[in-house]
Fur family transcriptional regulator, ferric uptake regulator
Amino acid sequence: MATTWQEQLRTAGLRVTRPRLSVLQVLAERPHADVDTIVSAARALHPTLSPQAVYGVLQALVSSGLARRIEPAGAPALFELRVGDNHHHLVCRSCGAVADVDCTVGAAPCLTPSDTAGFVVDEAEVVFWGLCRECRVRTPGVTAQVLQHDNRGGVNA
Amino acid sequence: MATTWQEQLRTAGLRVTRPRLSVLQVLAERPHADVDTIVSAARALHPTLSPQAVYGVLQALVSSGLARRIEPAGAPALFELRVGDNHHHLVCRSCGAVADVDCTVGAAPCLTPSDTAGFVVDEAEVVFWGLCRECRVRTPGVTAQVLQHDNRGGVNA
DNA sequence: CCGTTTCCTTGAATCAGTCAAATCACGGCG
DNA sequence: CGCCGTGATTTGACTGATTCAAGGAAACGG
């Protein structure tokens, strides 16, 4: 990372504070962390940090483009520092683990819908649902069960 | 609709009750309704209907495959009766309006990620974010503002 | 080093959704 | 046609994630 967190914050017009640096550090170590995780981990760096402070910091980071908020259905929000590089996410239905997926295709046909119903689209968000390797190994029979509760059928496309 | 709601419920192994028929009716008239909307509208058909009953009904419908639950980030869950036909959604950042998008492409390259990080993927969910026609007309300057708060950049693909 | 502005803390409130116990009614059986 | 058992609904309380508001503290320009 050529630029430091300090520089990034200043460039974004934000003051450099201990809570913000702590949160940034945590997010750098753990991409896709939820608020709870961030609070716990950041307290190692700043023991008096309050959850509300973390919410405030995250909102500031997201608003200024330093962080991105993702909200998998049925789970608390997650935050990541990878921004502006067009990537999507794999989410495990069983444990909630999240992995990044680079979008290899420049102009994906499915992502520029023919009929936009009068909408002006500025972003296409893709979430891949499945089971991570650990969960598949741990509970081999889970697939059918899990699928039953969510949308059935194969991969939508 | 060749089959009646009664038949669909019985086929799914569910009892035919007034709350369920009311909710189905409402969903048929208003695709993409949230729980609040469903409760209000369904009370016209069944005045003593409780919110918890609606939650129960919706859970039963989703579990049995008669309805689908969608959860746009930052909004309460929405429900629809279109199931099993691989379609996605357009969501208005301003008013939350939702429209269906048929997925015209059979095998979309972006939807079978090359590197699945060990995940077994069973569904690809796509959400197109933008502004609906009404919101664009109503508040022509909103686009920039709105985008500032969410992920910036052009259409991810 | 001081003042202004922004940020963090503390405490309370909101909202969506869930849990649990008791009542009610669908629909099979006699 | 009416009874019974299972499953559904009602009522009420509760959790968990997130937000709001007021006062105090800290950043940073001068």
